[in-house]
Every structure is written in structure tokens, then in C-alpha cells.
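pls design
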């Protein structure tokens, strides 16, 4: 998890961000419903307040500015009142340099949402989604190329409304890559050839399925589909947004990284994808790593879905969220893990903890072992296990259990010491000690969502795998650190 202090780096961008895409006017009409129409079995909305916000790629720009970064925005509006409203809304954003081309050949896209008692009843779209006329598309391209000088990131926010046609997208990516400018694409449609060579794509699960015609029900299937696109179109990285399951970061030349979402009440998912793209652009332009940028984007998206309408996430909101997570993690290590470790074989306390975590919507992970001499392999296992879940429980074999498994000379350290050492790890939220030869009974009692073991096992060899899968959980085989094992360390210390 990224630290709150890392946000200071966001205020030191290495260049402006340029955003090119389909701008819209988001219209929200609020009212009340007290009766059904006598003309048809539909509710009658008595209109009240009305508000307008930047939508589509305009919402990407709003989110970039809300995070304190400057952005150059290029798009097309119609020669109409909605186009004027879009221009006025952009003019109110001091960090946005807008270059809007006006045309009388198509209207400004408007999405009107009608809402009663916080429930969206109807959406009406006014749009012309056909590609721009050739001459207008050329003007957009030339304006964008001129703006590429001294930029850090190019964002293509494609809502399939005509601004980013096949030729424009492909040409912009080619020019940006020639200038060593990274390209982030929020894609639409089934044909991803137009985005070939892009640095980072952000499809959601549904979009990934449509683009590949592959199954995406599990994380493994999502990764396979993403790698299929990477191989086919030479993408550098794909970040798949997975709604309540968080995100999956799939780099072309590294292993994938799952980022769980933080549980919260979802109010409105409108524009969450825009927030993800904007956060990635700001983070990467400030020099954060891909993983750090993705974790930041995940947090930002979680903040905006708790707000009504097309919302943005500010730098202050991100800082508050990170400080809250950091404080919660510290409290977990100092109080929960150690206390639980001292009450060996008693699952009462940890079961209550798990119930609270689960009620909050958090994803529970579980791993186990003897952990007699903590080594680099253990550290890597715990870190990877925690990356897949919100809370991690570690089950430790008791002293008698270790003797039965490893021989009379083991363990080298008693169960209380082993548990306390594990409790000190930031990745660990609770430690339990089990007396049996396997942790099956402990797994059955705690019912984790995720079971993690080293990759020296196959799934069918993992104790508890069948049980965890039976209630919809998943099994993850973590990569092993070569040459790291307690037995080998002991043999080496004895001159073996």
C-alpha cells in the first residue's frame, strides 16, 4: 500500500498531461415521484433542481485538475447551447487549457439523467456517434500533435462518439511514442487494433470480454485475456477494472498484481473509470511506479463511487483515505495480531475479528506453515498473499505439530515466539496457532475468501483448497524464492 507521504510527489509533475477524447455535457434532473401516469404505467416525475457537469473525457480532465495537475484538453463540440455550456465549465477550471473545435455538422453530446429519491429513473442521450468528417478529424489531429511538445502523458479517452476514430487514435499513438510520451487509453468497442502499441489500457471486465471473446469470470481468466491482447497488439500494460473485486494490473514483462478494493457504500458509479484514468495519468506524470499509480487509482475510484453524480476525487480526499488506512493497519498489528497469537488454539477472538472484517466487505486471505526460521521466502510469500486481500490471517503449526512433521529436533523456536515474529509483519492482520497436522479445521472455522500456498504445490495438493472453493473462494499459488527453505538454512548452519 502506498504511503500518505507519497502524495507529496503528485504535486511535482514532470510535465503537463494532454487529454484527447469525446467531451459531453452531463445533465442531472432531480425531482419527486408521487403518482403513476394515467396515460401509461410509468411514474410521473415532478421536476425540481437541475445541474450540469462536464462528462465523458471532460470528466477525465476535471479529475486530473482536482488532483492538482495541469492538463491540455482537445475535443469537439457542436455549435449549440450545450457546446457553450461545456466551454463555460472548462473555463472555470484554472488548471485546464482547453482547445475545443466547434462544428455545425454535429451536436454536442448530452446525457440527461432523471433522478427521483436518489434513484436514477431514466437516461436520455442526444448524440451523433459517427466518425468526424475527414477535414475536422485532421484539424483535431494537428491540434493534438502541436500540443504534444513538453507533455508527460497522452490520455486517449474514447467514448466512441467520433472524436477518436481508427486513424486518429493510431496516428496519435505513433507520434507520441516517437517522442517517448507514454499513452494511456480508456478503450471502447471490440477493435483494439486502433490502440496498438499503447503504454497502458484500462478496460473493465465487460470490455475485456467483448474485445477478446474470452471468459473473464476468474482472475486467472482475466489475466489470460489481458495477456492475449498484449501479445496481439503490443500493449505494454493492461489495468483491468473489476468493480467490487478491485483491479488487476497485467504488465507485459512481469507478473500480474491484484489490487483489492476497499469496502464502502456505492452511491453512483458514473465516471469511476474516468477517475481511474485521470489518477493514473497524474501519478505516472509525477514519477510514481505503475503499481503505485494503480493503487492510487483504485483508492480514488473508491472515493468517487461514494458520491452522487459525475464526481471527482481531490488530493486532500486521497490523503485522508491513505492516513485512515495507515492508522487502521498500525492498530491491527499492535493490538489484534499479537493478542490473538498469545491465545493459542482459541479461535474465538479471531473469528470475531473475521466477522467484523467480512461485515465491512473486506476480502479475507489465509496462509499457513511452520515458520520455524523466518527467511526471504516467507517474507515474499506474506507480501504476495497480502497483495491479494484486505486482511491476512497466518496459521502456525504448534510445537507438537512441528515435531510430528519435521522430527524431534524441531522446532528451533517455540510457537509463541514464532507467532509473535509473524505478528510484527505489516502484511499480517492476525496469527493463529493450530495443533493438528493440517490447518483444515482452522480453515473451516474461519472460511477465508482466499487461500495462499507456495507454487511448489498444485491446487489439488493444497489442504483446504476444496473447502475454500466450495464456498466461492479462490486458491493462489505464490511464486517461490529460489534456494530459500528452513531445512536448507539449518543444514547449512550445521555444515551440511
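designed seq:
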Amino acid at each position: 500500500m502506498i504511503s500518505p507521504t507519497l502524495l507529496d510527489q503528485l504535486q511535482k509533475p514532470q510535465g503537463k498531461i494532454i487529454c484527447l477524447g469525446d467531451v459531453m455535457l452531463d445533465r442531472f434532473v432531480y425531482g419527486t415521484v408521487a403518482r403513476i401516469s394515467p396515460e401509461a404505467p410509468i411514474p410521473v416525475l415532478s421536476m425540481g433542481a437541475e445541474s450540469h457537469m462536464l462528462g465523458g473525457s471532460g470528466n477525465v480532465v476535471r479529475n486530473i485538475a482536482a488532483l492538482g495537475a495541469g492538463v491540455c484538453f482537445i475535443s469537439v463540440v457542436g455549435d449549440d447551447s450545450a457546446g457553450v455550456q461545456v466551454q463555460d465549465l472548462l473555463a472555470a477550471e484554472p488548471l485546464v487549457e482547453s482547445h475545443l473545435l466547434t462544428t455545425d455538422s454535429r451536436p454536442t453530446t448530452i446525457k440527461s439523467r432523471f433522478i427521483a429519491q436518489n434513484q436514477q429513473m431514466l437516461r436520455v442521450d442526444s448524440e451523433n456517434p459517427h466518425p468526424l468528417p475527414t477535414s475536422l478529424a485532421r484539424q483535431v489531429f494537428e491540434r493534438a500533435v502541436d500540443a504534444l511538445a513538453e507533455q508527460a502523458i497522452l490520455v486517449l479517452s474514447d467514448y466512441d462518439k467520433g472524436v477518436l476514430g481508427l486513424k486518429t487514435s493510431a496516428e496519435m499513438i505513433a507520434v507520441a511514442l516517437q517522442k517517448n510520451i507514454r499513452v494511456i487509453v480508456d478503450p471502447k468497442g471490440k477493435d483494439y487494433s486502433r490502440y496498438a502499441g499503447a503504454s497502458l489500457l484500462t478496460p473493465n471486465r465487460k470490455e475485456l470480454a467483448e474485445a477478446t471473446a474470452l471468459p473473464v469470470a476468474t482472475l486467472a481468466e482475466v489475466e489470460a485475456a489481458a495477456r492475449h491482447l498484449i501479445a496481439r497488439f503490443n500493449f505494454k500494460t493492461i489495468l483491468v477494472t473489476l468493480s467490487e473485486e478491485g483491479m488487476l494490473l497485467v504488465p507485459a514483462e512481469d507478473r500480474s498484481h491484484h489490487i483489492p478494493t476497499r469496502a464502502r457504500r456505492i452511491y453512483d458509479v458514473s465516471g469511476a473509470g474516468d477517475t481511474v484514468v485521470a489518477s493514473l495519468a497524474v501519478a505516472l506524470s509525477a514519477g510514481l511506479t505503475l503499481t503505485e499509480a494503480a493503487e492510487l487509482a483504485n483508492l480514488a475510484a473508491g472515493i468517487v463511487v461514494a458520491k452522487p453524480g459525475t464526481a471527482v476525487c481531490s488530493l486532500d480526499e486521497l490523503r485522508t483515505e491513505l492516513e485512515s488506512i495507515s492508522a487502521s493497519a498500525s492498530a491491527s498489528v499492535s493490538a489484534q495480531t499479537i493478542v490473538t497469537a498469545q491465545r493459542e488454539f482459541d479461535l474465538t477472538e479471531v473469528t470475531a475479528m473475521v466477522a467484523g472484517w467480512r461485515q465491512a466487505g473486506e476480502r479475507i486471505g489465509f496462509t499457513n506453515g511452520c515458520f520455524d526460521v523466518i527467511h526471504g521466502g516467507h517474507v515474499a510469500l506474506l507480501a504476495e498473499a497480502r497483495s491479494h486481500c484486505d486482511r491476512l490471517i497466518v496459521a502456525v503449526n504448534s510445537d507438537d505439530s512441528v515435531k510430528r512433521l519435521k522430527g524431534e529436533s524441531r522446532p528451533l523456536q517455540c510457537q509463541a515466539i514464532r507467532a509473535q515474529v509473524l505478528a510484527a509483519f505489516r502484511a499480517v492482520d492476525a496469527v493463529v496457532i493450530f495443533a493438528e497436522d493440517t490447518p483444515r479445521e482452522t480453515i473451516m472455522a474461519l472460511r477465508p475468501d482466499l487461500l495462499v500456498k507456495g507454487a511448489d504445490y498444485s491446487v489439488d495438493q493444497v489442504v483446504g483448497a476444496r473447502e475454500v472453493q466450495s464456498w466461492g473462494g479462490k486458491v493462489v499459488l505464490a511464486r517461490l524464492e529460489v534456494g530459500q527453505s528452513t531445512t536448507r538454512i539449518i543444514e547449512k548452519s550445521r555444515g551440511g
